[in-house]
Amino acid sequence: MKDLNNKVAVVTGAGSGIGRAxxxxxxxxxxxxxxxxxxxxxxxxxVDALKGTEVKSYHLDVSxxxxxxxxxxxxxxxxxQVNLVVxxxxxxxxxxxxxxxDEDFKxxxxxxxxxxxxxxxxxxxxxIASGEGHVVNISSVFGLIGVPKQSAYNAAKFAVRxxxxxxxxxxxxxxxxxxxxxxHPGGIRTNIANAARMGKSENxxxxxxxxxxxxxxxxxxAAEIIVKGILRDESRILVGPxxxxxxxxxxxxxxxYQPLVERxxxxxxxx
Length: 271
Description:
Number of domains: 1
Strand content: 15-25%
Domain Ketoreductase: 7-191
EC number: 1.-.-.-
Protein name: SDR family oxidoreductase
GO molecular function: oxidoreductase activity
Oligomer: single chain
CATH class: Alpha Beta
Keywords: Oxidoreductase
CATH superfamily: NAD(P)-binding Rossmann-like Domain
């Protein structure tokens, strides 16, 4: 997909952060937009910012499989085609394996993994039918390395990475007209940390302050990088200098990266 003009783009989690920035960036490229979020007020703000663009908004809880499939059918009916799907909606949890509840673990997996998997599968037939489709699934740098107190988030984001990389190979082997990209953002200045759930013993204020210090990239810059990656058909899109650094450490050291993370975590997470 070398040109996004007049393409129909679907963006989940478009009510804030990367999702909103992506919607705006895609609109500048001439996309027709189907934006969704569970937060209706945030979604309305995104739609207001997209004045002059052909856009339709949808209330969507990506943890609801049936709702996702109904959403895919509705978008295809409303726009007549679907070319690009960005499965972006996500949440965060900071809690140790011992402390996190089953409910919180399920909450993260239902949104961060199953939301992506169902979103991909629901839209895939429409993308194939378009003759020029692209799936973009948002993982994380936590889909590249394991981090203490992020086991649930790691589980979801590693799963997104594996699912997406396998899908890309399948589309090529089956000669389907669908490109596939997995996005690994580093620290992005969004509200995800403020909205994160915390384990019982976590210092929420300190955790959020620490995240803010590490967030190197604006949502707008992240969106620009992602759109360029889409147009280049990149299989792995790294967002931010921290993402490039983490990917390099993982590639060079393999499992030996873990002592580095342990030292960082002892200083910053176990205080």
